[in-house]
Amino acid sequence: MPTSLVTGGAGFLGSHLCDYLLARDHRVICVDNLETGSLRNIAHIRTANFEFRMLDITSHYEVAEPVDLIFHMASPASPIDYARLPLHTLKVGAYGTHNTLGLAKAKRARFLLASTSEVYGDPLVHPQPETYWGNVNPIGPRGVYDEAKRYAEALAMAYLRQQGVDTCIARIFNTFGPRLRANDGRAIPAFLGQALTDRPLTVFGDGSQTRSFCYVDDLIRGLVALAESEVHEPVNIGNPNEMSLLEMAELVVELTDSRSEIVFEALPVDDPQVRQPDISRAKDLLGWEPEIDVREGLRRTIAEYTERLGGPVIP
Ligand code: NAD
């Protein structure tokens, strides 16, 4: 039975990853400091193959048992979180990634870095292939997150080239699904919270900026396919089905049968105008592509959201 360690395993993506690995008969060690995650996300897991450890990975940490795979998911991930925690975000990308790569080296484990489409910044190339180096503003409010992830990528490549650690890098594009926090500031949970309580949906700018939304189950399948491959170079994992934020707001209103209207607010600083993954590499090297379309993904998310929050949703 392989052992996987998941940093950030009590977060949105990390908890779905733990579920998926356990279903594939992995032993799972979940490491988290609950900064943005929650024990609620893993409370349903009842197996002796799962263990939660409350640890802050920005300090040196050790794990006694052998580990085969490390999924390094820990990091504040939504603009609200990294605006609140700018130094912590930089430290997780730097010290947290150093410490976790050091553990991968000691355990001779395969290491997967959860990187992000934000490494492309406000892209001048569309869609974005992995060969694009990006257009990031290092000193803007989003710089703490974007540069932390770019640094973490550089670190993973240095550990691969110089230390012989078996690393890979997943560039994750916008992902949604059950367990997204209602108040985490990302577009879909914000729209859902507003639509389900018939309050106006707030769209930033004129809503023409695009995103490509991937359903969480597809994303997790892609991460594990990458971890189980021998690929080292970065791979985009996301859904290329691009839509504007206004279209997404309208779809949420339709699927929730809401009476909400849509209102427009000022665009945040450095908000990327377009975002769409080129997933040719994932298709060629991993045989992976998304299978769940955005409508179906939203239906599942709305069902869980309504059940979890039971009644009026206060985002
Ligand atoms: P999340 O906030 O739900 O999960 C992050 C987890 O990391 C949380 O449980 C948090 O408590 C934990 N954490 C933060 N600092 C820590 C520390 N110092 N020590 C231990 N644990 C710590 O976010 P998410 O959406 O699940 O994102 C997971 C990863 O995927 C992040 O690295 C993020 O950058 C990346 N990512 C996510 C998306 C997305 O659309 N969700 C897109 C691109 C990249």
What report would you give on this structure?
With 315 residues, the chain is an alpha/beta fold. The protein folds into two domains: 197 residues, Rossmann fold, CATH 3.40.50; 88 residues, UDP-galactose 4-epimerase, domain 1 (Alpha-Beta Complex). Helices cover 37% and strands 17% of the residues. It contains nine helices and 13 strands. The strands form four sheets. It has a seven-stranded parallel β-sheet with strand order 3-2-1-4-5-6-11, with helices on both faces. Strands 7-10 form a two-stranded parallel ribbon. Helix 1 crosses helix 6. It starts with a strand and ends in a 6-residue tail after the last helix. Nicotinamide-adenine-dinucleotide binds next to helix 1, helix 3 and strand 5.
Can I get a quick summary?
This protein is an alpha/beta fold and 315 residues long. It has 9 helices and 13 strands.
